[in-house]
Amino acid sequence: MKQTKPTGGIKSLLEIFLVSTKLGLTSFGGPTAHLGYFHEEYVRRRKWMDEKSYADLVALAQFLPGPASSQVGIGIGVMRAGVLGGITSFIGFTLPSVIALILFALLLTGFDISNAGWIHGLKIVAVAVVAHAIMGMAKNLAPDLKRKAIALLALIGTLLWQSAFTQVGVILIAALLGFLLYRQYEQNEEVSSQFPIAKSFSAICLLLFFGLLIFLPIIREATGSYWIAMFDSFYRSGSLVFGGGHVVLPLLEQEFVPNGWLSEEAFLAGYGATQAVPGPLFTFAAYLGAVMKGWQGGVIATIAVFLPAFLLILGALPFWDSLRNNPKIKGAIMGVNAAVVGILLSAFYNPIWTSSIIEPIDFAFASILFSMLVFWKLPPWVIVLTGAFGGLLISYLP
């Protein structure tokens, strides 16, 4: 792989910030669409890296838990201007949607608009968007009978035993099943690459990732601090998400709704609003944090939910070759990815479907939005605006 030498300097960091901010303002459509935007901007137009370099980075982001598009953006920034470049790239891509969702949360809590008709419309939008995500992910992540069976077991487990521990258990069991079922998995060729990060620095990042995952719950129990509890919940959710931003929904829902930190209405309204803004779906955490603790909570939640992605991508870059060329590890990841489909199906039923589709007209409207998204291939922002307006109209019907 052709290595991109870090350039460093204020000029390079400013360039990264301007380009990533432009992408953060215009990248609608979810992680797959984001990767397309990145390819067009960074590979084809600016030629910051070659095709093989980009493909290797995308493969690594898909392998790790966390928001794949954000991790790719961080990796591009690292390869362009070192670790500071990665941080700058992340800020530019994420900041626009974080600001928009914090403002929306403050509006929601300040004016008590949770029962407004357009909010219900945004909840119906979530039905259409997640249904579309399930279709694409099931096709790619569970193409054969073995992985379909793993997805079915994950669906049953997460539906019947709804807790944060269930999510972790399902992922671990799926990894074991994938390891056993696909241990003879053959790859077509071995690949190699080089990344401009020292292995010692990467090792520190990985130790910090696991250290926070283990010790934050202990500190939470010992101190009883609300802020530490919030940070721990968002950090853990960001650490355990395989399969992209949509899968963070059930983890965050289980962390905050049953405990009464926020209502299910406010949770689903924010999830619908997140579809209206560009950038990564993980910025949904900014909305949740702002609903619970104002703009300060939004900032803390954003840092906490994205921190695992940072530590993992920085920690894994130099070790990627040995992992992806190991067929046993590959099999475990295949099992986890199949379980993601089942987890998403479970979240689609509860809380999304059960809280959004109440009357026949809700289902009819959801079908229209789904058709607009899947068959007519309209942009997501059009779907969101249509959903909000349609929800408002439905509220006036007798």
Automatic annotation (TrEMBL):
Tell me which InterPro entries the record gives: Chr_Tranpt_l_chain, Chromate_transpt
Q: How does it sit in the membrane?
A: Multi-pass membrane protein
Localization, per the record, is: Cell membrane
Q: What highest taxon heads this organism's lineage?
A: Bacteria
TM ranges are 12-37, 57-78, 90-111, 117-138, 150-181, 201-219, 226-248, 268-290, 297-320, 332-350, 381-397
* GO CC terms, sorted: plasma membrane
Task: Enumerate the UniProt keywords alphabetically.
Answer: Cell membrane, Membrane, Transmembrane, Transmembrane helix
GO MF: chromate transmembrane transporter activity
Q: Does the keyword Transmembrane helix apply?
A: yes
Per the record, the similarity remark reads: Belongs to the chromate ion transporter (CHR) (TC 2.A.51) family.
| Name of the featured protein | Chromate transporter
Organism listed in the record: Sporosarcina luteola
